[in-house]
Specification:
Elements: H1 5-17, H2 21-34, H3 39-46, H4 50-63, H5 82-89, H6 105-111, H7 120-129, H8 148-158
Helix pairs in contact: 1-2, 3-4, 6-7
Length: 168
């Protein structure tokens, strides 16, 4: 397998400067092969499979450096349902039979169906991925009334301030 001098330079630059560590490692593996080492030798030294090395070579030769980056959508699909979590977070835990006024990671993991089986840490990471951040509890809680959201919507529509115009 022959690599050009330009490809060698690109690979060593990527091995030193790529933002993702796995791309740096793949570029370093490919640079070693471009310098004349065998796939088996490099795979053994880096403790990776020769099949992976061969796959990275094909991806690099067909797509360039972009072929070394893991594409979005790979891996297991997200199990967490954003709307479901939001609906639980906007209600008091007491509405679900809990004797507490604020949600905890554990209680969310036990109550929200899409978070069942998650550890506390897993619930935290899921919330962070959805854009939630830790915030101190507020002293007031939404009403336990099942029609609260509907009534609140009516109240906010009725309470809009009228616009005043200035007459001369």
């Amino acid at each position: 397998m022959e690599f050009t001098e330009e490809q060698r330079k690109e690979l060593i630059y990527t091995a030193k400067h790529a933002p993702q560590s796995y791309v740096r490692m793949k570029a370093l593996v490919l640079w070693n092969i471009a310098c004349g080492r065998t796939q088996v030798e490099v795979a053994r030294f880096m403790a990776i499979s020769r099949v992976s090395v061969n796959h990275w070579i094909r991806c690099y030769l067909s797509q360039g450096i972009n072929g070394l980056v893991v594409k979005k959508g790979r891996g297991p699909k997200e199990k967490v349902n954003r709307e479901e979590i939001e609906s639980y977070l906007r209600q008091s835990p007491r509405r679900f039979g809990l004797q507490q006024t604020r949600w905890t990671l554990r209680s969310l993991g036990e109550q929200v169906p899409s978070l069942k089986g998650f550890t506390d840490s897993g619930v935290y990471r899921a919330l962070v991925r959805l854009g939630y951040r830790y915030k101190r509890g507020q002293p007031n809680v939404h009403s336990p009334d099942p029609l609260y959201d509907e009534k609140k919507g009516l109240w906010t529509r009725l309470s809009t301030k009228p616009e005043f115009t200035r007459e001369r």
